[in-house]
Amino acid sequence: MTTAIVGVGNIGGALARHLVAGSESVVLAAKDQSRAQALADELGPLARAASVEDAIAGADVVVFAVWLDTIKELIAKDARLLENKVVVDPSNPLGFDESGQMIRTLPEGQSAGSVVAALLPASAQYVKAFGTLGADALASGANREPRRAVLFYATDDDAAATAIERLIRAAGFEPVRAGGIADAGRLEVPGGDLHQGGLNGELVDLDQARAAVAAELPG
Ligand SMILES: NC(=O)c1ccc[n+]([C@@H]2O[C@H](COP(=O)([O-])OP(=O)(O)OC[C@H]3O[C@@H](n4cnc5c(N)ncnc54)[C@H](OP(=O)(O)O)[C@@H]3O)[C@@H](O)[C@H]2O)c1
Asked: Which of 3, 149, 215, 216 lies at 20 to 30 Å from 36 by C-alpha?
C-alpha cells in the first residue's frame, strides 16, 4: 500500500515521519516541491517526492494535509485522479481574518468533513482522520507506553476503515472509529468533543476513547 501525503507542513511532516518509522511507503507532495523532496531525502527509501498529481495517481490512500480551502481547490482540480482512492481529511474549519485572528470558516454545525466528502467522486472513500491532535502532540505522541494514545477516525466506508486503521497503527497510535461522515464534526475544532481541544488537551487511551465516543451518542 502506498500513501500519498499532500502537504508536508506541521501535520503532513509528522505523519510522514511516523508512517516511514512504521514501515509504510509514502509519496510526498507540497506546493514547493523542494520541501517534499527534502523530507523524502531525510526519510530514505520508503519515501519519495512527486508532484501533487503524480503523488495522487500512484497512491492507494491520499492524505490531504493542507488547509481546507486548499483541499477544496485540489479536489476540484484532481477529482478524476481520486476515483477509487481512500481520501483522508485532517482539516478543521479554521482560517484567519484580516487582523490575523483565527476564525471558524464554516457555519456552526457544518463540518469540514461533510464539505470535503461532498466534493469527492462517488467512488472515493472518505475518512476523517489525523487531525484530532495538535501537531506537536501528533509529533510527540507516537508509540506511547504503557498504553498507546488513540487517534479517532470517522468514515462511512468499511474498506476505508481498514486502510486507516492500518495507517494509524503504523504511525504508533491506537485507532478508534467515532462513527461516520455525519460524526466528522466531533473530530474537528472548534467544538468537537473528540478533538484534543475537546478532551482538555489530553491524549486518551483505548478505554478513555471508547467512553468518550459513547458519551455523546444519542440515548
Ligand atoms: N497544525 C495543527 O496543529 C493541526 C491540527 C489538526 C489538524 N490540522 C489540519 O491539518 C491541515 C494541515 O495543517 P498544517 O498545520 O500541517 O499546515 P501547514 O503547516 O501550513 O502546511 C500546509 C502544507 O500545505 C502545502 N500546500 C499549500 N498549498 C498547496 C497546494 N496548492 N498544493 C500542495 N500542497 C500545498 C504547503 O506546501 P509548502 O510547504 O510548499 O508551502 C505545506 O506543506 C489543515 O487542514 C489543518 O486544519 C492542523
From this structure: 149
